[in-house]
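User: Some background: our group keeps a shared notebook of sequences we're curious about, and every so often someone picks one and asks for a predicted structure to add to the entry. Today it's my turn. The entry only has the sequence so far, pasted here. Could you supply the structure so I can complete it?
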Amino acid sequence: METTEYTATIRDMIQHEDTLRDQRLGWMFALNGFLFTGLGFAWADDDSGPLIVVLALVGVLVAVSSAAALRGSQLAIAKLANLAAERTGDEDLGLPPVIALRSKDLQQHDSGPLRWLNATWFYPWKMLPWALAAAWILVPVLRVLAR
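Assistant: Of course. Here's the predicted structure to add to the notebook entry:
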């Protein structure tokens, strides 16, 4: 397989991983939306304490499971990018890069008042599952405090 074919295949595989990542985020948001809707209906009922705890536990599990799947996607993309780099080496073959902007490239632009936005933990696939897990952990706590 020629280098151009190889890098095109790697790009296709990375695009596929990106599509999977988008689908995983979509499922996570959809499931959390259903769970928060159920929580909204149950919140006003005084006898709904056990249901709220169950919804919160399921919400935490969905968020942590999504984080694990999204981490796998991130590792797969990194592996594919490394395979392309190994194949093409340091020589300039006139090929476009397999990934346009890597995290390490972004972090090199650490200047200006918004440089903190370059932190990779702000990526939605890294931050949002944990933010949702924290929100679900707070739900039963807030329920107890509201009484």
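Suggested note for the entry: The mean pLDDT is 85. The two ends are 67 Å apart (CA to CA).
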